[in-house]
């Protein structure tokens, strides 16, 4: 029973980048027929322009038509669970439903709003560096820095008690772990939603200044409890499973390019471009949401019928020679907006301004504090996760 | 209304389409801003010639397709 599942093509990596067979498929075919983990076949889209096209047309490529986690049984309990999992699922909805939910959240993630968070993020970063310095070397860059910093930031932004982290960190790890049976991942999703639902129920009498409090105050009448729970749990998971992997993998990538790292340390003005290049080169989100065609479409020279599953490979697209020359090279100086690491189209990452702000503060602070930062053991990749990253990264200084 | 400066196309922003990602503000702050709802507002519809490259980038990278240029 405990056979190890085979990693599907769209999740395969060679170290930081897409697996060689994935890049080869992009260069030879572009749109590739593949098997997914749950038995269905799908079209994997790998070229930069094709991925942009798919992500720009939610009316042709629907997120809402994809059954969540494909519950294997059509039992009544399964259907109820599926309905619960759909409520408030920003990322799993199409316009106009998506627009309604997204519009409630955009005011909280403006560039200006993020600047207001800056001092508090600096404090959180410094506190964690102080703690590392005091108790190490060695330290685990993942558990001592990369995971707790964004985790604490998103908790404070939402109004979720950080002391509950053991519970929700484990839940979100399970939701993203594709080696687990779909029912188990669906159960983790339900658990995450119930946690937020209980939290917000307790807030209703006196909603605070945080994001969940704002949603209750300003949209309490338009949002059901299930929708509120869906939005909250998505933000909680997206908020700490993404930036944290960028911080750990990004630091590892910098260590493997010491010349560029030295330049970055000496000239911090290079940081903004460097972060965009790291985002492109690492493309930690393998695919984003699966999509289902709503009609017959032409894509990359192929005709795809209605009702077909379509998956976009972000790392393959971001290393397409059509985007940048020598795409396999990490070249921190050339980094620019225009890559697909945050997606594209209406589902473009809501938290991108926050993630950029966290990285702009955390990377320089880490490099300044530990000029001699080096590996003190083998970093371990999390290969069965929907977000590419490390589970551990022993460091010394 | 002042006539558009030669060679620099006018920018249009469709606030019904905008999702408030803010990439335009990051790319060309002189031309784009966000209101309290996070939606795009034009600082000016007739960008200065020296901002043209940045404006073209902002239009091309706008995730929701809310921005366009009135060329020609
Ligand atoms: C560097 C870190 C991050 C990366 C690389 C990243 C990547 C992505 C990508 C690729 C998508 C689009 C998925 C798709 O099209 O199916 C997305 C959507 C999303 N992200 Fe992020 N993300 C990051 C950080 C964050 C943070 C910190 C938050 C929390 C506030 C967040 C919240 C979201 C949400 C809510 C969506 C769904 C938006 C929608 O459907 O309209 N992300 N992200």
TrEMBL record, chain A:
Pfam families: p450 (PF00067). Coiled coil: none annotated. Keywords: Heme, Iron, Metal-binding, Monooxygenase, Oxidoreductase. It comes from the Bacteria. InterPro entries: Cyt_P450, Cyt_P450_B, Cyt_P450_CS, Cyt_P450_sf. GO terms for molecular function: heme binding; iron ion binding; monooxygenase activity; oxidoreductase activity, acting on paired donors, with incorporation or reduction of molecular oxygen. PANTHER family: CYTOCHROME P450 YJIB-RELATED (PTHR46696:SF1), P450, PUTATIVE (EUROFUNG)-RELATED (PTHR46696). Belongs to the cytochrome P450 family. This is Cytochrome P450. It comes from Planobispora takensis. The lineage of its organism: Bacteria, Bacillati, Actinomycetota, Actinomycetes, Streptosporangiales.
